Amino acid sequence: MVHISEIGEIFRQEYGRSVAVLVRVLGSIDAAEDAVQDAFAEAVARWPDAGLPPSPAGWIITTARNRAIDHLRREASGRDKIARSALLRSEDAALNEETVLIENTVEADAVEDNQLRLIFTCCHPALNRAAQVALTLKLLGGLTTAEIARAFLIPEPTMAQRLVRAKAKIRDARIPYRIPSGAELPARLSSVLAVAYLIFNEGYAASSGTGLVREDLCREAIRLGRLIVDLMPDEPEAKGLLALMLLLDARRRARTGPDGGLVLLADQDRSLWNSELIAEGQSLVRQCLKRNMPGPYQIQAAINAVHGDAATLEETDWRQVLALYEQLLAVEPTPVVALNRAIALAEVDGPAAGLAAVERLELGSYYLFHAVKAELLRRLGRTKEAAAAYLEARERTDNDAERSFLEARAKALTTTGSGPGGQSSADPPGP
């Protein structure tokens, strides 16, 4: 017996790859999405009783393709039907080859290229940056409209309208579904990197659901990061982003306890950190330093390389971390970067200095603003205010693991008057 939740998880994992393959065949993002949704409905009807197919990924693509082709043939008529059927037969053969590769669990360059093509299509200069990122998160990351809206801190209906307009722009402007030529690549790079990082962030700290981490999105973002570096090996920011994701992902196992609960950086068992990923990330950081062309992702990677060097929290070179955040704030002056800087400042100059920096920020809708404020208040002994800030943070996240952690911190303060010991350091939330 296959549970509906298991089917849903499979579709979240395979959504981006399936849509990317079908866009090439159908020539329409909307048609590809509809086809994958039809396949999901079919799986919900069949799989609970029949069980999982040998290759769920191959089944999804094949079923979605067949539903889409049936629909197109029903819609076509006369000469249009004959022409469309001939085209579909040609495209069908190519897709069958890809499906066989997927069903045999062989890594197919063609499938990866489809995803990279879709990323560059979504990141076409005709779309504004917010639309580029949102659409790629939807199509490649498999995120729901609600999850993307939370990532952008905007209402869900606003995000839904943005996605509709972005797809219409691609359709009406006939934006080609291809990887751009070498001369066109640099103009698209910043958007493509932003997309990969946002996919990673949603995996590293899921905005909703029961678990803190979505490993499938972390893996997908890193895989895309590697593809981008292979495509553009001389772009230091591409290497910086890959290094950043590797260094953060290296800590993933230590970020949750046996019960799935959140574990702060200060309390993590560093023996669980992945030394191979740290070594690879730090090697990429060194390569970036040699180029001497610093950018936001490279600086963030350098910050996390410092964390990776420390065997214990006390051994962390916080002055270097703070200096790097100062540099990051100069090139990317956002409130969230300033919040990260305040965390480092509290470690160097004390929690009062950190709290003063936090209270100057306008991030009232961001749960980590309240969580960081609560930790600093707790360290200053202002337990009543800290408990209230923890509860405020809890109300501003939809992730069950985070909500449980924040509620437990608030409860510890109200029952003991001092709460859990230790420092407040947490994994930086990122810009």
Concise overview:
By secondary structure, the protein is mostly helical. It has helices at 4-26, 29-50, 56-75, 78-103, 109-122, 129-139, 145-152, 156-172, 185-204, 215-231, 236-249, 275-291, 296-309, 318-331, 335-349, 351-359, 367-379, 383-394, 400-416, and strands spanning 208-209, 398-399. A two-stranded parallel ribbon has the order 1-2.
Note the main attributes of this structure.
431 residues; mainly alpha; Serine Threonine Protein Phosphatase 5, Tetratricopeptide repeat; two-stranded parallel sheet; 2 strands; 1% strand
Question: Helix and strand layout, with pairings?
Answer:
Blueprint: H1 4-26, H2 29-50, H3 56-75, H4 78-103, H5 109-122, H6 129-139, H7 145-152, H8 156-172, H9 185-204, E1 208-209, H10 215-231, H11 236-249, H12 275-291, H13 296-309, H14 318-331, H15 335-349, H16 351-359, H17 367-379, H18 383-394, E2 398-399, H19 400-416
Parallel strand pairs: 1-2
Helix pairs in contact: 1-2, 1-3, 1-4, 1-5, 2-3, 3-4, 6-8, 6-9, 7-8, 9-10, 9-11, 10-11, 11-12, 11-13, 12-13, 13-14, 14-15, 15-16, 16-17, 17-18, 18-19
Please describe what this structure looks like.
By secondary structure, the chain is mainly α. Among the domains are: 1-106; 317-431, Tetratricopeptide repeat domain (Serine Threonine Protein Phosphatase 5, Tetratricopeptide repeat, Alpha Horseshoe), CATH 1.25.40.10. Helices cover 70% and strands 1% of the residues. It has helices at residues 4-26, 29-50, 56-75, 78-103, 109-122, 129-139, 145-152, 156-172, 185-204, 215-231, 236-249, 275-291, 296-309, 318-331, 335-349, 351-359, 367-379, 383-394, 400-416, and strands at 208-209, 398-399. Helix 2 (29-50) crosses helix 3 (56-75) and helix 15 (335-349) runs antiparallel to helix 16 (351-359). The longest helix has 26 residues, at 78-103. The chain is globular. Belongs to the sigma-70 factor family. ECF subfamily.
